[in-house]
Specification:
The complex is a heterodimer.
Chain A lengths: L5 H9 L17 E2 L1 E4 L3 H14 L4 E4 L15 E2 L6 H15 L1 H5 L10 E5 L2 H16 L5 E4 H7 L14 E5 L3 E2 L2 H14 L3 E3 L4 E7 L2 E7 L2 E5 L2 E3 L5 H7 L7 E10 L9 E4 L4 E5 L5 E7 L11 H14 L8 E11 L6 E4 L5 E5 L9 H14 L13 H4 L6 H4 L4
Parallel strand pairs in A: 1-12, 2-3, 2-13, 3-9, 5-15, 13-20
Antiparallel strand pairs in A: 4-8, 5-7, 6-7, 10-11, 11-12, 14-17, 14-18, 15-16, 16-17, 19-20
Chain B lengths: L2 E4 L3 E4 L4 E5 L13 H8 L8 E7 L7 E7 L5 E5 L1
Antiparallel strand pairs in B: 1-2, 3-4, 4-5, 5-6
The chains are: A alpha/beta, B mainly beta.
Amino acid sequence: MQKYSIFSLARNALSHHQHWSRAWRSPAPRPQYDVIIVGGGGHGLATAYYLAKEHNLSNIAVLEKNGLGSGNTGRNTTIVRSNYLWDESALLYEQSLKLWEGLSQELNYNQMFSRRGVLNLGHNLHDMRAIHRRVNANQLNGIDAEVVDAQWIKQFVPILNTDNARYPVLGASWQPRGGVARHDAVAWGLARAADALGVDIIQNCEVTGIRRKDGQVIGVETTQGYIKSKKVAVVVAGHASMLADMAGLRLPIASHPLQALVSEPLKPILHTVVMSNAVHGYISQSDKGELVIGAGIDAYTGYSQRGSFHVIEGNIAAIVELFPLFSRVRMLRQWAGTVDICPDACPIISKTPLKGLYFNCGWGTGGFKATLGSGWTFAHTVAKDEPHPLNAPFNLERFTTGQLIDEHGAAGVAH
Amino acid sequence: MLHIHCPWCGLRDESEFSYGGEAHRVRPADPDALSDEQWADYLFNRGNPKGLHHEQWCHSHGCRRWFNVERDTVNNRIVSVYR
């Protein structure tokens, strides 16, 4: 792996940047791997990276049907936080947040991880009670969180309309260690590091079937031929049900469109992340200056990667009420991804009834922040054939046992 | 925005309707007789197909009646509407 530094930048500038080596190889698939990871988004690449780094496996392939990070990894609003209510999710997301902290240095790739803090607004008494409860739970779990009042918010974000609104802002939870990261850099940095550890990253290779024998996975059919492997780890977000279908399984997943949009670039105006579950909007400003705005899911299921206009209309109405200043800002781009929604708004990182088949899905509207923790725990699950204590509660059986992790309060709407 | 043909009211905007998920799921007559796996399958598991999907819609801001729609989940084309 070619090391990136100020010196390599200067050296390559002298040769007009013609001699940079490729960030990762594009090998043809080998006939057999120890582990096949289906899905080359952030979570799949993180899984490959941690399998190679923490578990010393190197005969690993990542199969991606399009290009790396072309799904939800490249479509989200890049917010990173860990202020979840329940212990199970708080610990999982906090592990992820800790892994983000050193990632740029570890990967030698700038993740542009910016700890600008995250505000989750409360608009009525009930919101504030829920926020108090969640902040107390966070503090007990060692997660930085505090309750701030409207006065504090007014000083910190002067452009936020706290009082002259239909739903006035009464206060918020504040997580200073939260922030945003650059989603593409996460995929590219992890891919480059995984490749350097020997992982084969195979793009434009769609899995079309999962071959099994006597309750054991033996390989996958792909558009580039049959590849043998006794361990297949599926991390395909919105398409999880398709892959489960290939293995004869049914999942409690519904795939919905989730929309987001960005404005034309502006001078720096918003230096933190503001989210509101009640009026339903979340917003931050990218380093390029665009306001990055996330909407809610469309009601219907679908794989169209586009949503209905009235959903972003309601979303923008909320943003404009919170930030009247933005009412004349023009929107530049709008898009949607296909998100995999679980009934309890929590992910599945689990073994399956089929030996050697592992599923990591159900991240719904908030998977980006968990990219690293997801990959880290999933790698452990695949390598040891048993879950790590952090992801053990996120098993597939919880829908049968009834031990759900109802995270709608902290996760169900805004991410 | 989807345009949905309500069987009673005619063509209306999606914003008048509520989505009701997968159609033709029948609540088991005797839940006590089911295993945990069967009950979980009824409660939580969904077909979630990529392609034609039979789903329920309710004309909430109109006649408030439920009906079924057959829609392609890839291109959102509504193939048929039936009661």
